[in-house]
Design a protein that fits this description.
Blueprint: H1 3-15, H2 21-32, H3 42-55, E1 60-63, H4 69-94, H5 98-108, E2 114-118, H6 123-133, E3 140-144, H7 147-151, E4 159-164, H8 171-181, E5 182-191, H9 209-223, E6 227-232, E7 238-243
Helix pairs in contact: 3-4, 4-5, 8-9
The protein binds S-adenosylmethionine.
S-adenosylmethionine (SAM) binds near residues 70, 117 and 165.
């Protein structure tokens, strides 16, 4: 990412106070660890939060969680929606329909609101600890293993929102699963659709297998009759698509 873009993101993040101590600490954990920085940007996190508040998904799937930075953004938005639903329920309660309120709450909590899929056994306890610190663990399940083992077992129309941010080589395959397991009207969000660090998809000489897979994914999404979609040039590209 260029210095200019970094400066802009820092400006937005500081002006709108996008990151609290929990999110800043997750970034710090990554910088102290030996691996790369791979989290979404705070500007993307805020955009995803707003999309969740507008779209109000009940079941969300994240493929690729790393330290849990994006999971915290996703789960906080879901928790905020849950609190709002709770407020409405209390109003109904005062009007004397207690039985309906209890039934509604029970159906909301029959499953975790967010399922995080993470292959690395080293990362899973870190993700869980960060979600616990953020008091989000009660609405999130973190599943260790290859995402495909989970995806193969899912029925059609299971999720209201899917966020893909795992190994880029498999983006085309993740897309074919998303076509099936996302509900009609559901939202598909995919990070790094312009590149790994910048906009490498534009460079015709870049034949890195991950970049080729991202290009293939973009073509599939653009040509899909199932999705209405766009790519936002935010960080290294975020695809937003609604399943028709
Ligand atoms: C880019 S990082 C995720 C960053 C995270 N979404 C965030 O913004 O904080 C990608 C993660 O996907 C995981 N991953 C890669 N291939 C996977 C697979 N087949 N199944 C599940 N997780 C996978 C990696 O271990 C890594 O932690």
């Amino acid at each position: 990412m260029s210095d200019f873009r970094d400066g802009v993101i820092d400006y937005i993040s500081e002006t709108f106070k996008l990151e609290d101590e929990i999110l800043k600490d997750i970034i710090k954990q990554q910088s102290l660890a030996s691996g790369p920085m791979m989290n979404i940007g705070p500007d993307q996190g805020k955009l995803i939060e707003l999309l969740i508040k507008i779209h109000k998904p009940q079941r969300v799937l994240e493929i690729g969680s790393y330290f849990g930075y994006s999971a915290v953004w996703l789960a906080r938005a879901l928790k905020s929606n849950l609190a709002k639903a709770g407020e409405n329920a209390e109003i109904e309660d005062r009007e004397g329909v207690l039985g309906e309120r209890v039934a509604e709450r029970t159906s909301l909590r029959q499953y975790p609101l967010l399922t995080c899929l993470e292959k690395s056994s080293k990362q899973v306890p870190i993700i869980k600890a960060n979600l616990e610190k953020a008091e989000l663990d009660s609405i999130v399940e973190v599943l260790e293993g290859d995402a495909f083992d989970f995806l193969k077992k899912q029925s059609a129309n299971s999720f209201d929102l899917i966020f893909i941010d795992a190994d880029k080589t498999n983006y085309p395959t993740y897309f074919t699963f998303a076509e099936k397991i996302l509900k009609s009207g559901g939202l598909l969000l995919v990070d790094n659709v312009l590149g790994l660090y910048n906009s490498e998809v534009l460079d015709p000489d870049n034949n890195d297998h991950r970049i080729s897979a991202i290009r293939k994914f973009n073509t599939m999404l653009a040509n899909s009759e199932l999705f209405d979609s766009a790519i936002l040039a935010i960080q290294s590209g975020l695809a937003i698509a609604v399943k028709k």
